[in-house]
């Protein structure tokens, strides 16, 4: 397991993530608060210090407006590109 304590930075797609990794604050929050995984489990699965997971959760809750803006941008991008995806039910043999 990594013993490097990472800072939260905004270098990747202008979204807060762990420094030196592509793991976003939003992803870590979803794993813990929406999927119900423990911070230790998430840390182990992604080779992180458990402190990094807690740091991301703290960042998420300390910056609610920023995180809501990011969530709206993600949803908008999904809707904007939805026409590019294929519905399995519409594909014929």
Question: Could you name the key traits of this structure?
Answer:
mainly alpha; two-stranded antiparallel sheet; 52% helix; 93 residues; single chain
Q: How are the strands of the biggest sheet laid out side by side?
A: 1-2
Radius of gyration computed on alpha carbons: 16 Å
What summary fits the major beta sheet?
2 strands, antiparallel
Name the overall outline.
globular
- Fraction in beta strands: 5-15%
Low-pLDDT parts are: none
Structural class label: mainly alpha
What is the total number of structural domains?
1
Provide structural commentary.
With 93 residues, the chain is mostly helical. The chain has one domain (8-75). The longest helix is centred in the C-terminal third of the chain and has 18 residues, at 64-81. Helix 1 (25-34) crosses helix 3 (50-62) and helix 2 (39-45) crosses helix 3 (50-62). A two-stranded antiparallel sheet has the order 1-2. It is built from 4 helices and 2 strands, in the order ββαααα. It has helices at 25-34, 39-45, 50-62, 64-81; strands spanning 8-12, 15-18. The relative contact order is 0.15. Residues 66-93 are annotated as: Disordered. This is DUF433 domain-containing protein. InterPro entries: DUF433, Homeodomain-like_sf, WH-like_DNA-bd_sf.
């Amino acid at each position: 397991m990594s013993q490097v304590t990472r800072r939260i930075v905004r270098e990747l797609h202008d979204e807060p993530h762990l420094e030196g990794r592509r793991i976003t604050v939003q992803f870590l929050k979803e794993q813990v608060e929406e999927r119900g995984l423990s911070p230790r489990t998430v840390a182990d699965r992604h080779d992180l210090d458990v402190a990094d997971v807690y740091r991301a959760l703290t960042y998420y809750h300390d910056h609610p407006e920023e995180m809501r803006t990011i969530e709206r941008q993600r949803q908008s991008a999904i809707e904007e590109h939805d026409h590019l995806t294929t519905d399995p039910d519409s594909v014929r043999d």
